[in-house]
Amino acid sequence: MKTPLLAIALFMPSLAQSQGAEIFKGADMALGARLIAENKCASCHAGKVGGDGSAIYRPQGRIHNAGLLRGMVENCSTQLNLQLFPEEVTAIAAVLNRDHYKFKP
Question: pLDDT by residue (tens digit) across 4-46?
């Protein structure tokens, strides 16, 4: 059974790298904005990079497509034990895309 798991693990990064902003289609933007405020994302980011925290959003950095953006939000949820549902992660990433990254489908 290790071979299928290995194949999935090897395939997933390329899947994330190939995803455009169409993954945000139908995302609940109001929910995403509310979750960003409730979870104090800006405060956490300000603690990491200073200022108002917006310097953490670097479209030219390692987050260069929608799939990687969504993955980073998922990573924050996991690291901070936020227990977000997949649709909540997508909603947050969609708001970040709208406000900072502007990835196209």
Answer: 544 444 444 444 445 789 999 999 999 999 999 999 999 998 8
Asked if 103 and 21 count as a contact pair (C-beta separation under 8 A), the reply is: yes
Neighbours of 47 (CB within 10 A): 10
Question: Which pTM does this prediction carry?
Answer: 0.79
Cα separation, 98 vs 70, in Å, equals 13
Tokens of 100: 């900072």
- Give the C-alpha separation, 68 to 34, whole Å: 22
Specify whether the CB–CB gap between 73 and 96 falls below 8 A. yes
The helix-helix angle for 66-79 and 2-18 (nearest 10°) equals 120
